Amino acid sequence: MPNKLTRDRAEQRVMEDLVNALLAEQFLDDHASVERLSKGEWDAIITQDAQMKAVQEQFGAGADLATHVYRWHLEDAVIVFPVRASIAQPYWFEISYGLCKASLHAGKAALLSKPSPLELMGHVVMLYMNDPVAVDPYGAVKFLHMIEQTLLQTSFSLENEQPAAHILGLPQRASLLAAERKAGYRDRPFHPVSKVKQGWAYDECSSYTAEFGRRIKLNWMAVKQDYVVSGLEEGKELFPVDLLLSDEERSQISNELNRRGLGEGAYTAIPVHPWQMSAILPEQIKRELEEGICIPLETETGTFYATSSVRSLMPENESPYHVKLPLGIYSLGGLRYLSAIKLMNGQQAEWLMRQAVERDAVLKTKLFLCDETKWWAYLPEDRDLFADYPRHLSALVREYPAELVQDADIRLLPMSALSVYASAENGHVLDEWLKLMGSDRSEPAAVVRLFHEVLVSYFEICFRLFRLGMMPEVHGQNCVLVWKHGKIEGLLLRDHDALRVHVPWLKANGLEDPAYTLRAGYPNSLYHEHPQKLLSFFQMLGIQVNIYAILRSVSQYYGLSEESLWEELQTCLEEAIQKAELPDEVANVLQEALFVKAVWPWKQVVRPLLKKQTMRVPGSMPYGQGEVANPFHILNDFKNRRDRLCFVFNQEYKV
């Protein structure tokens, strides 16, 4: 069981993410029982109300930076917490500010306590007890259970936190694994229940998550060849064992197939995650197991490690082949299966992006794609691609580009690793990079230069793809920086199945509709009639999730103001727009959406989990989109206020 210190750290992290999600998604707005008080109003209250003054004394030292105070009246208590005006969202809560619950009784001193995330969310659910559209009772129970598991699994993760280690100085394979482990400690930034793998206890988390770094031996399922569909070209004979196993390991599988009368092409051996083999498949494919369509093999072979995505595994040896496997667990509210449809659509998306690379000289040298065309899946006799079966027994063998893995000087750095830091020496990846460039963390200008280089490289590639009518799912887990001798040489993309497109721009650039296979009658997020909608996914996943997580980690670790880094972010966007050599139509869309419009789209993470789900593709992550003020408008307001204060100060003291 994790110790108290670790449990407290887990609770603080989850509480900060939860409160900020509630604020961003406006859960506490427009309720008579919830007040948002200005600092002046709060200061006036505590001079007259002894109970509120006692609450004030519970706040942390950081609360001096707060600009407002939320006061939420319950039946016989009040929850109070300070917030500050923010660029990313209207109000931001820092865990250092403190959050206090005061149980009030007339004529008595207030009983003060710190509510847990679970208790706080319980009060939110009660706040919406008469609004089942916004908060479905069943969804609320599930979400509370997710918080409970998140707290426990986050504490597992933190208790196993490794000492800060060099990443860029390690050999490439070891470097990538270390970066994946580092990224695993944060998972999906700002998501209060991102860490939860529902139903997993300590044994599963310690065996199968990246943070623990344990070896995973693949299990294997022999599937009758007539029931296997793959992404291979017709007539091409290739099997998972050929790519994932050594000669000796392949012999072990081959010998068992022959010994059991399953050889000579009658069956294909498909790798299975060991947890999936024992916990999910016995019930999912019960009939197939009884009829001998699927036969579990006794041989466990092929040694891999979990990456931060958990279901994608990287090899112990120097092989360029990683493997992505279905897992019947819920994470981020979605089931982590791997459907044949997703694999097919990912293959179509990759084909389209490879065509795009040929049409852009810069993408040709700076954009790299993992090969995700080698996949195999069980398909039932009725060939129903939307049935449950292809989702739970399949495998994608992801091949990393030879020109990258064969270059000993290249390091592959998932952008998600840049959003994580520890308090120890070498706590942030940029520390090591700074040293290699002859600088250190005491030089803010050097830190900002590296931040600038990462952002401009990333933005330019995103904008060149957007110009052609497409936008990948560019969050930090999918985007891998290609780093060499202290420079960003390009961007490697993986997990192509969510490439979104605007067909008119594709066709205008001589590209074709990828012809995705979609479930009839269900909404999809892959095709967009308007380029602005396509760009919204870049704003949400690319900036608000990926880049803001990096910005915030750099701000906190190196002591740089978020305002100054947002200014740098704006400069990087403007520079990337220029470098991307965009037609006027595309540049105008970018300028309008990024800098002119008063609002930006906001990817909701809590509301979709609480709402009653209708017309949702089975297993997909719940999706919701709201709005926030354009961060660059807020940035300008901050700068204007700062300039006015400087003017008043200068006039007062004749500086």
Automatic annotation (TrEMBL):
Pathway assigned in UniProt: Siderophore biosynthesis
Superkingdom assignment: Bacteria
Entry coiled-coil feature ranges: none
Gene3D superfamilies: 1.10.510.40
InterPro entries attached to this UniProt entry: Aerobactin_biosyn_IucA/IucC_N, IucA/IucC-like_C, LucA/IucC-like
Annotated Pfam families: FhuF, IucA_IucC
Residues annotated as domain Aerobactin siderophore biosynthesis IucA/IucC-like C-terminal: 465-603
Domain Aerobactin siderophore biosynthesis IucA/IucC N-terminal positions: 184-418
Family: Belongs to the IucA/IucC family.
PANTHER family according to UniProt: L-2,3-DIAMINOPROPANOATE--CITRATE LIGASE, STAPHYLOFERRIN B SYNTHASE
Protein's name in the database: IucA/IucC family protein
